[in-house]
Specification:
Helices cover 48% and strands 17% of the residues. By secondary structure, it is α+β, with helices and mostly antiparallel strands. It contains three helices and three strands, in the order βααββα. Helix 2 packs across helix 3 (64-81).
Amino acid sequence: MFITIIDVMRDLGIECEPRVAWSIGARVRDLYETMTGSAPVKALRSKTNEGGTHCFAIYPEAMRPEIERIISQHLTEAARQGDLFIQVPIHL
């Protein structure tokens, strides 16, 4: 079974704007590439908040704990920095 970053965020009850998800996605992608030596597979899936489809990186379910850790770290850092770098609207 494969998951996306958005799948994990929604399972955690977190909705955020696309640029935050992209930033988290870059961190997860970098970790995956470090772990495996290759980029994650992409799959065509329905867009998160709009009609149409989009290629999303998909990860093995076994990566869920690492993805959750990266999400938590990113949101904690962003909240601590305030709007120094990025606005992070979080809806729990």
